[in-house]
Amino acid sequence: MPLQIIRQDITKIKCDAIVNAANKTLLGGGGVDGAIHSAAGKELLEECKTLGGCEVGEAKATKGYNLPAKYVIHTVGPIWHGGNDNEESLLKNCYLNSLLKAKELGCESVAFPLISTGVYGYPVDKGFKAAVDVISSFLMDNEMLVYIVVFNKASFIAGSKIFSEIDEYIDDNYAESHIDKNRSILSENAPLPSFFGKMPKRATGKAFADDLCTSEYASADEEIEIEVDESFSEMLLRKIDEKGMKDSECYKKANIDRKLFSKIRSNPQYRPSKQTAVAFAVALELPLPEFKEMLMKAGYSLSHSFKFDIIIEYFVTKGNYNIYEINEALFAYDQNLLGA
Ligand code: AR6
Fold first, then answer.
1. For the whole model, what pTM was predicted?
2. How far, in Å, from the CA of 107 to the mean position of ligand 1?
3. 31/130 Cα distance (integer angstroms)
4. 339 pLDDT exceeds 60?
5. Whose CA is nearest to atom 8 of ligand 1?
6. Which DSSP category does 30 fall into?
7. In whole angstroms, what is the distance from residue 32 CA to residue 10 CA?
8. Rounded distance, CA 197 to CA 185, Å?
9. Which residues contact 179 (CB under 8 A, 6 or more apart)?
10. Which regions of 64-143 does DSSP assign to beta strands (E)?
11. Is 141 labeled as catalytic in the residue annotation?
């Protein structure tokens, strides 16, 4: 998935580069800067001493030394002064210049902390939005795997207004009493029940759709031979044409990488995971009935027994098809994120 939100200590992430929220001296400090320096070892400070500091919004790279990451890209975020001191554009420069540096170094994966949202006091929700805006537009033209690392989830959730609305929607719609006994013993992200493997190979119409509804729990993309009037892949390609979209526009908007899209494109019987199917329906901005129809093609439905489904329904009914905002909400509710 090109943009992932994860909860981790950035010093433990194995990727080509991690980004450090440093200060202008580049000689270490507290927060994520302190954690990176202590995990990388003294040699990192030695190399930093040769860099001559860094201006706010700029980015400079060093090796990763004892870190699992090959490189550290040091950037200096703005200090929050209330929002009228050019903070947003300076923060966006941090993300963009770090991404450009990663590209220059040939990195295929890079992890960002939420720059400026600690000691420098930038509000977490605004800092997150700046990160997503820059990274998502960068990914429209570049192939890279980018992680946004959320270290302190509590402050991340507390900072966002949208969650109270979603809470209400979940409260109104979460039909716990409707979960049947078989399902209630499974967690929402539980693996596919074993009987799924016995799905009939040839089937059409409603009976087939009902059979497939047992596959709510599928989380991995898999290839499986099925025959239906129009397959998921066929419907996807038809909808892309009808919307006048380019393939790349669609898979990027779906937060799906090119390789997975090619697989789906070349195999009309490809059965995507539920997250992938939802991601494409979001990218195509389908209204709820068509949205559900498309999921049905892949054997899924949206039910009020699962938080994941209710959150998706919330966004679709609101006409909000921004996959990054949807993923932000899914992340906050500990659900699988959309994309590959
Ligand atoms: N992994 C991922 N994220 C982390 C980690 C970690 N190990 N530790 C903290 N964070 P901050 P700033 C998150 O204060 O606001 C330093 O002293 C943290 O929860 O590290 O840009 C520098 O030298 C927060 O969301 O950086 C500067 O003087 C985010 O990282 C100053 O702090 C940024 O918090 C920079 O302040």
1. 0.82
2. 22
3. 20
4. yes
5. 32
6. S
7. 8
8. 20
9. 305
10. 71-76, 109-113
11. no
Q: What is the C-alpha to C-alpha distance for residues 313 and 307, in angstroms, rounded to an integer?
A: 10
> How is residue 249 written in tokens?
């526009």
**Element spanning 148, H or E:** strand 145-149
Check the CA dihedral 13-18-21-27 and report its sign: positive
Structure tokens at 116: 């400026």
Tell me the CA–centroid distance for residue 15 and ligand 1, in Å. 19
pLDDT in the model for residue 95 = 98
Give Dmax (Cα) for the chain.
69
pLDDT confidence of residue 200:
35
CB 316 within 8 A of CB 329: no
Of 310, 325, 320, 302, which Cα lies nearest the Cα of 171?
310
Chain centre distance of CA 140 = 14
Task: Report, as an integer, the average pLDDT of 171-188.
Answer: 52
Rounded CA separation 304/300 (Å): 13
Question: Please, are residues 71 and 107 in contact by the beta-carbon 8 Å criterion?
Answer: yes
Distance CA 38, CA 97 (A): 24
pLDDT of 114 above 70: yes
Pocket, ligand 1, Cβ cutoff 6 A: 9-11, 21-23, 29-33, 35, 77, 113-120, 149, 151-152
CA distances from 281 to 47, 139, 248, 265 (A): 47, 20, 15, 15
Cα separation, 52 vs 49, in Å, equals: 7
